[in-house]
Write a structure and sequence with these properties.
Blueprint: H1 14-27, E1 30-31, H2 32-39, H3 46-58, E2 62-65, E3 70-73
Antiparallel strand pairs: 1-3, 2-3
Length: about 80
């Protein structure tokens, strides 16, 4: 589920689904709720969505303002 292998295709893995979140966040910042409802068709369950956010956060690709609940793309120029 998290990483692709012989059984799980790249598009079905968490790594593949993270790109969907990145495409949205790179255009505009969104609240976690807005982001979930916009991308929920791509995730089978909410835990996949949360895993994707976790990995993106750990990779320092997104930041989260926990007071406002806003997710922002980290631009590395």
């Amino acid at each position: 589920m998290i990483v692709p292998n012989k059984v799980i295709r790249f598009s079905e893995s968490i790594i593949g689904k993270m790109t969907i979140i990145l495409e949205l966040i790179s255009k505009q910042e969104m609240t976690i709720k807005e982001l979930f409802f916009t991308t929920q068709d791509y995730f089978e369950e909410i835990d996949e969505f949360i895993y994707s956010l976790d990995v993106l956060f750990l990779l320092d690709t997104i930041t989260v303002d926990f007071d406002k609940g806003v997710v922002t793309y980290v631009r590395k120029d």
